[in-house]
Amino acid sequence: MSSPTEAAASVPSPLPPAPSPPPPPGPVTGRSPGRLMRRRFRRDRTGVVSACVVVLFFAVGLLAPVISWLYGKDPYTLYGQEQPGLLDPFGFPAGPLGGVSGEHWFGLEPGLGRDVFMQLVYGIRTSLLIALAVTVATTLTAIAVGVTAGYLGGRTDYWLGRLMDFLLGFPSQLFFVAFMPVVVALFVDPREETPTWIRVTALVLVLWFLGWTGLGRLLRGQVLALREREFVEAAKVSGASPWRIVRKELLPNLVTPVLVQFTYMLPGVVTAQAGLSYLGVGLVEPTPDWGRMFATAGEVYENDPAYLFFPGTAMVVFVVCFNLLGDSLRDAFDPRTGR
Amino acid sequence: MLRFLVRRTLGAAAVLLLISAFTFFLFFSIPQDPALLACGKNCTADAVALIHRNLGLDDPVPLQYAAFMTGIVTGREFAAGPCPAPCFGYSFANDRPVFETLADRFPTTASLTVGGAVVFLAVGLGAGMIAAARRGTATDKVVSSVSLVLSSMQIYFLGPVVLGVLVYGTGLLPSPSYVPLTEDPAGWFTGLLIPWCVMAVIFTANYTRMARSTLIEQLQEDHVRTARAKGMPGRTVFFRYAWRGSLIPIVTIFGMDLGSLFGGAMITEFTFGLAGLGRLAVDSVIDIDLPMIMGVMLFSSALILLCNIVVDAAYALIDPRVRLDAGSSA
Prior knowledge:
CATH class of the largest domain in chain A: Mainly Alpha
Order of helices and strands of chain B: HHHHEEHHHHHHHHHH
CATH class of the largest domain in chain B: Mainly Alpha
Strand content of chain A: under 5%
Shape of chain A: globular
Oligomer: heterodimer
Number of domains of chain B: 2
Largest sheet of chain A: none
Number of strands of chain A: 0
Number of helices of chain A: 15
Distance between the termini of chain B: 12 Å
Number of helices of chain B: 14
C-alpha cells in the first residue's frame, strides 16, 4: 500500500472514510455515515438487484429441505433407474434438453438418473455453507492478525509480516490439492470410510490456512495509517487502554474494508472449492456438490450438454451478482471511487 | 541492483527451505506407511522391510529430511538406481526419478502458460486501453460489462462448451493435445489454441479491468495534464506518460499469475486432458505419491518465487522512482 496506483489496483477499497463527525446541531438533521451509505446503496439499482439475487441464492441453500419437500424429490434417489423410460439404453436422459420435463425441471443426471434440480439446490447448499465458514474464519483471522501487527508494530509486526510473506509464497491451488488428503488423513485412517463432515472440515481448514493473508496484510496497512490519526492519539492521551482503542477507535473504521473484501472473497471461495471437487479432491459421492456436477458434466458433455448448462449458468449468475454487489457496496461506502 | 538481486534470492531460498520443511514434515506425519504405498499391490512383509531400509524410512523424520535436502544438491543412491543431482527421490507410482518426470511435464505447462499469457495480455490490455481512452462512452460500457461477465466464468464451465462447439460440433479444430514445438509447430499451435483462449478468457477480464482503472487514474495525474496543456499530442501523452505509469500494478499481478501458471494450470490441464505439471500434481495427490508431491510443490514454489523476483527487478526499469537498494521490500 505504498503508492496510490498500487492501492487502486490490488485493493478495490481505498482508505476508510473519516471517523463520524458530530451531527451538526440545529434544524439540519444529521445523518450518520451508516445511514448515508444505506441511502446511496438504495439508489444504486444494480446493487439492489444483485443483492436480491445473492439473497435468493442463500435462501435456496438455506431452504433446500423445504424446496425438496415442496418439489417432492430428493437429491439421492436414482429416479432414472427406478422408473424405466426416463433414461435411454445408453444411460443418457431420454427427451429434450437432458430430460427436462414437468416432473424433473432441470432434467436427469446421465447414468445414475438423479434429479438435476435437487442436486443443484443441495449442491448450492453445501458450497455456500463451506464458503461461508471459510470466509468468516478467514476474515476473523485477518482482523486479529492485521490489527495486532499494525497496532503493536515493531517486532510483532515484523514476524507476522514474514509469516504472511511465507504463506503468500505457497502455490495456493497446488497447496489446496496436495493438503486435502493430508488433512483428511490426520483425522481418519485412510483405509476407513471418511465421514462427510471430516471432508468438509478439511476443506474449510485448507482454504482458511492460506486465505487470510491478503486481507490480513491490507488491514495491517489500514491500522498502521489509523494509528497515527488524531482521534487515536486523543484516546491514548486520555488514558484509554489498548483494548479499548482497538475496540472503539480502530475496529469501527475497519468495517468498510472488511465488508467489501468479504463480498469479494466469498465467490472466490465458492469457485475454489468447486474447483477442488472438480479435480476430484474435494467432496465425494454421494454428497451433492456444485463443483462435482462440473466433473460429471465434463465427462458426459459430448453426449449430454444440458447437464452442464444448469450448474454452469447458476454459477456465473452467482459470481457476477456477488461481484456487482461488492462494487456497489464499495461505491456506497466511499463515493469518491466512482465508476 | 546486484545487491537487491542477491538479497531477494537469499530470501526466496529461505522461503523455499521453509516450504519444503513444512511440506515434508506434514506429509511424513500421515499415519500411513509410505513403504506400503511404494510397494504397491501383492506386497510381502519382507518387501516392505526392504523398502524401509532402502528409503531410510526407519530413520527419524529430521534425518530423512536432511537426506532429502542433501539429495537435491548432491544426488543420491537408491536401490532402484542412481538418482542424479537435483534428486527429489524416486516416484512410488512409476519408479522413475521424480525430477525426470518433472522435466518431462514442464514443456507442456510452459507452452500453455506462454501462449495463454500472450493472448490474455494482448487482448486484456488492449481492451482496457480502449475503454480508458473512451471513458464513459458506449464502447467503455460494453467492454466493462463483458469483462465483468467473463471474469465470472469458470474454466470448467467454459472449457467443455468451447470444446463442444469447436471440436465435437463443427470440427473446426482438433481435440486439444500437446506436441513439442520443435517437432511440429503447426500441430503445437492448433493443439493448444483452445486451451490458450479459454484460459485467456478468465485472465483477460482481470487485466482489462485493471488496465482501465489504473489508466483512468493516471490520465488525471498532474504531469499528464501538464503535458497535455503544453500541447503534446494526445497519443504521445497516452502512451508515454499515462501508460507507463499504469504498468506497475499490471506487472505485479502479471508476475503472480505467471508464477502460478508455470507451476501448473491444474484446472485447464485437467479440462483439456493435457499432461502438464498441474495434471501431475493432481494425479500424484490421488495416488499419494509422496516424493512426486514434494517435487511438484518445491518446483512450483521455486517458479513462483523466481517470477516475483523478476517482477520486483522490473519495477526499477519501469519506474525510476523505485530504488531497489534503499527500500525494505519494493
